[in-house]
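re: ur question from earlier - yeah i can do the single chain one, its not a big deal. heres the input i used so u can compare w yours
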Amino acid sequence: MRAAVLHEIGQDKLEVLDDVEATGFGPGKVKIRVRATGLCHSDVSAMNGVLPQPAPFIPGHEGAGEIIDVGDGVTGLSQGDRVLLCWLPACGTCPACKRGQAQLCLAGFMNAGTPNFKRPGGDVFGFAGTGTFTEEVVVDAGCAVPIPDDVPFDIAALIGCGVTTGLGAAINTADVAAGSSVAVIGCGGVGISAIQGARLKGAAQIIAVDPVASRREAALRFGATEAVSPDELADAKQRVTAGEGFDYVFEVVGKSATARTAYETTRRGGTLCIVGAGALDDFLQLNMFELFFDEKKILPSMYGGGDVLTSYERAIALWRAGRIDLESLITHRVQLPEINEALDQMRTGVALRTCIEI
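and the output i got, formated as tokens:
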């Protein structure tokens, strides 16, 4: 079957090969025919080594498709079921799951260290235990979440990561208060979803911050009240908040420099929500006095900061009701052989989300 493979960490191009096989099928597993997958910035971060991932590997973790085989012991799933892929399934039994923090379950991360593909030359890993830049993938049954018939595969794929992450950061983690002021730094697919979440929660001012003009223009269509470039943020802070700072600031880039800017842009007593996934060696510096004196809340948000299955259902309900726009998040579409075009669209910032149709 065809799949897009990164041979070594640090390479910037994927090679589309037709000699890849999905492996590991057996009890407790399902095999999925991937129909659509989104390109998330985390895929690029894994390729360049910002996020740890064994190589060679197949990127992609934001996907949807149909079940083509079900292993022994799997219940609630059948051949032909339409599903989205959950890259961080909850085991239901660990301390985090029992506390109601299923997004912190580590069971799914264990899959990342086990190859689930192979080629004649050896094993191939799937990013985050999945690897959706391929025609077929074998995953734990818990990774396959049934979707209603009226949800297209491309929309379901987005819900599988970017939409859930951004919406959840605003709704679950930060719990944005009605009438508040919000700034979102980084307005790709996740940042735009955070903007939509803040709008749903009733934020009065939502300032979108991004260096790419097309993304700033898009942010206004999705609910931002103003969109500025990074060098205009200080002026926006002065104009909108009289210099006090925003009630909520979302960092959706994953870099210490933007996180520090976000901290300084948050008002005393306000909330900084860290959504971007950054590198292990990129440290955010804060001094002990400012932590004490400013009383700013720093809230990291992992996968939307809540139960992902509940978040999926909420996103579908909001989409059906027309309260969130998911179709317009997909600004570009490519076929799998053109996957490197999608990477260029991500790196240059011209795409909010590129859908790879498989």
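The radius of gyration is 20 Å. not sure if urs matches, ping me
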